[in-house]
Amino acid sequence: MHIAVTGNIGAGKTTLTKMLAKHYNWEAQFEDVDHNPYLEDFYADMSKWSFALQIYFLGSRFRQVKEIRESGKDIVQDRTIYEDAHIFAENLNDMNLLTDRDFQNYSSVFNLMKSFVSAPDLLIYLKSDVPNLVKKIYKRGRDYESSISIDYLSKLNLKYERWISEYNEGKLLIIEVDDLDFVERPEDFGYILERIETELHGLF
């Protein structure tokens, strides 16, 4: 079984991934943030480092999906390969921070990689509004995220909404998290588990 958790920066993907992995006793797979050699440079100068960052993420994610499928294990994954292309690279291109030439180059590599990977058995989208995202990003206090603008988060949110509305790679579960606190309130985590079980196994 391969479940993936998706959503904007600050939506709670990593936290939920850890909690689901612990609950089901599955393996958790996380995006390579702490060891990403481009992330701090990117937030300091987006136009200079956008292509290098996106290619790094794409390669890292492709390797991750390949390992997930070859392992035969039950996996909960933080983010998917699709977001790199449909959300982040596309948004950088819209903002003129990734040139059309680089975006086309990136997209051709993504489409090639996509043909070799399988979609998760269930994609969980954590839907959140921008004020809630800002609050969570501020709370966790990562230095390299301090320069993220509300405008940037808003553009990403619009991209997520469009991508999710068109997603047809596999099963999809949308969870609105603004009024949930699945860390502090066990009943909220229980609600998410019920939604997952229903999606995976049906009502009976």
Task: Walk me through what this model shows.
It is a single chain. This protein has one domain (2-201): P-loop containing nucleotide triphosphate hydrolases (Rossmann fold, 3-Layer(aba) Sandwich). The protein has a five-stranded parallel beta sheet, sandwiched between helices. The chain is 57% helix and 12% strand. The model has no long low-confidence stretch (mean pLDDT 89). Helix 3 (46-71) runs antiparallel to helix 4 (81-94) and helix 4 (81-94) packs antiparallel against helix 5. It starts with a strand and ends with a helix. It is α/β, with parallel strands linked by helices.
Topology:
Elements: E1 2-7, H1 13-24, E2 27-29, H2 39-44, H3 46-71, E3 75-78, H4 81-94, H5 100-114, E4 122-127, H6 130-140, H7 150-166, E5 171-176, H8 186-201
Parallel strand pairs: 1-3, 1-4, 2-3, 4-5
